[in-house]
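Entry:
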Amino acid sequence: MSIYRLIRLSWPPTVQAGELSSAAIQAIIDAGDITSGVANFNGNDAVGLFKNDILIDVIGQVGEDPGTAWPVADDASGTVDQTLVRKAAINMGTISWTSSAGTNADDSQWLVYSQDELSYLGSHVQFTDNEAPVVSFSPLNGSSQVTETTDITLSFDEEIFNADGSAISNDDLAAKLSFSETATPANTLPFVASISGQQIVVNPTGDLKLGMQYTLSLLANTVEDATGNENTESSTTFTVREARTVAEVASAVYTVDNSNSTISNVPYSEDLTAFKANVLALSGASYDVYLADGLSVATDLLDGYQLICVAEDGLTKKTYTINKIAFVNNETDILSFAVPGQTGEATIDADAHTLSIQVPYGSNRSALVATFTLSVGATAKVGTTPQESGVTVNNFESTVTYSIVAEDGTTNQDWQVSVTPEAPNTDASLSALFIDEVVVEGFSPAVYAYTRQYPYGTAGVPGVTYTLNDATASAELTVAESMPGTSSVKVTAQDGLTTQTYSIEFTWEAPSTEAYVTSANYLVNDTENTLTGIPYGTSLAAFKANLTPAAYASFEVYQSDGSSVATDLKSGYLVVVTAQDGTTQKTYALTLDEAPTSELFFSEYLEGSSSNKALEIYNPTGADVDLSAYSVKLATNGASWGTMQGTLPRVWPILMATMPWACLKMIYLSMSLATWV
């Protein structure tokens, strides 16, 4: 009497009848109820459990080739060289491998273990989590040279909750944490804490003290994991870096000599504000400028003044002498000049004291900020307004007079600065025209009218986009209100006068009158207008997905009254197909196969090394199950389930009449075939 049947689609068949592998390990044989050299499955094969030739549980997806393996949970190598154990909460099979495999460890029905993990054979039970959540800190315990602005991060190895099992909010964290100076625990520090996922971030309020050691503790029994395991107290102790003793400055404008403690090449006319803006204290130090006596804080800047730099530690000091340039410049030149958007370099005539720049046509010249350089120490005014490079705004719609005063404060020269627009462009053409992001066939900038035909009834107006031949031109797109219709693009050149319009006429083909459906899965009889061979339990969505209407036709499923749209699927329901013309129709009556009963499901899958292959089937019903109606099938490398006869696939009987309730039965599968039926 046959109780299990395993069908394998070999790709290609290479094992000959009578060859029996000896590589199966004894542990699998001892755990199984039946051993037989009947088949070999790989990680990219589908394995199905059948009752009366109706699928009731599956590993893999029939008709698809995943490549190397079927993904399980978040493991891309799920079914290859690994062991899968069904979670204890699963008590029945499913024909949806997508639901069974899941997308992560939480929603999958399977636990993924390493290759040849045999400890779960003969059982359908999980281990219980008795471990408390483990936390790791950053900075690490014992860290030194920690920055004074650091945040402290607590990372847990699993999701955590309040001790009462409720979700943790940011407001809950203050009572769970203690933050203080290590040597003086009473000196606690204020902080703001936040939680995201499995991580808590503690942000101290204000900078930490340099050289100080701090301790952050997670108090005991304040958090727990999903199974109620509460934490023990844990902490991290770290030391903030020591204050730096560097007392030096740097400048990108002046010459700083740290050996001789001087700052030289300071322009004669440099004021105190400009000087400070050009001198940078290094490594957290600070400085101030004093009179030559080194005691009185300066309010201006003269040669011989002193800059006193104090290091971050507040003790180390260095005194620099400021040396200003004695020479007084009398030059009044504009050396460079630029405005935003200019189209070329400025033309500077040093003899005529004129300067001209061009900007694109249409540019707003009424409020431009010029960037310029002058002779050393020179200054500029427009009228009575001092000019600052990159800051001062001027109206350049007409020539602007810059009055340049030399560093000596006496010599001056007027410069005439002109910012003029270029001539406008007259190009009103397109360089490209697109329909639904595809270039229009035969497009030419000199051809202005196009026609495109679409299937009858096309509702959405195709999208029209374009590329201007001249970026300074503008365009107005007019979209057809409906199909059929005409969309157009009107291009206006930069001069605002030259225009050109491109049009695309969208038309329809004649409508189809064909009204029928086809199916690769069901039997369609167009003579009797029936649909049969539909497996019991097929969902409405799956049924619809397996029907293909005639081109441009549509269909709907109705209850037997022919007017109520179906929300499920039953025998006697009707499929009404409507042709594209909206008038021609055809109605099919559908009949579902009889409902199977299912008691068994896969509880374990072992795809081990060499020939170590095993499947475990579980009976949770509370009663013995007659196994004569059940079979196990194999679909290899993306093939479909095999039939029950013929050379390929093949059928192997395994003798047993019934399967006791709550029983686990192991089928040991080696690489070779002892008997073909």
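The chain has six domains: 2-125+597-669, 146-239, 249-312, 334-407, 430-495, 517-581.
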